[in-house]
Write a structure and sequence with these properties.
146 residues; alpha/beta; 5 strands; 41% helix
Length: 146
């Protein structure tokens, strides 16, 4: 099927590569509604000097504007790194239907908390194109250490 999780995650990875090229932590995200991309972004924390300018939050805002509503029911977020607790809170309030992420974040990811912090109706898929996302993150942090 052309509109698979892998298909959409590859597009999120393209956003992460843009972040990498802009010396941002390489996290990319897209939001899909009815197999149509309605928002896409990447981390912009350095460029905007804003600690909250995570790819997920920027996508949520863009999708809300696109749809003209505050809830993202019937939407899926594809993101290359497991969302942090701040982003999980925004995803909770947006009532997004589904979150698909690639790489796990054992340090700051929302799953490090004892209970699910996403909306109870949100479905989660983990590990889609995990290796590609991890490689991009590892390359970025290796570049920083040189």
């Amino acid at each position: 099927m052309i509109f698979s999780d892998e298909y959409f995650m590859k597009i999120a990875l393209q956003e992460a590569k843009i972040a990498f090229d802009e010396d941002e932590i390489p996290v990319g995200a897209i939001i899909v509604n009815n197999n149509r991309i309605i928002a896409k972004s990447h981390n912009l924390t350095e460029k905007l000097s804003d600690a909250t300018a995570h790819a997920e939050l920027l996508c949520i805002t863009a999708a809300n504007v696109f749809l003209g509503q505050k809830y993202l029911k019937n939407c899926t977020l594809y993101v290359t790194l497991e969302p942090c607790i701040m982003c999980a809170g925004a995803l909770f309030w947006s009532q997004i239907s589904r979150v698909v992420y690639a790489a796990y974040d054992d340090k700051y990811g929302f799953s490090t908390f004892e209970k699910n912090v996403l909306h109870p109706n949100t479905q989660i898929s983990r590990g889609v194109l995990k290796e590609a996302a991890e490689q991009l993150l590892n390359d970025f942090f290796s570049k920083l250490r040189k």
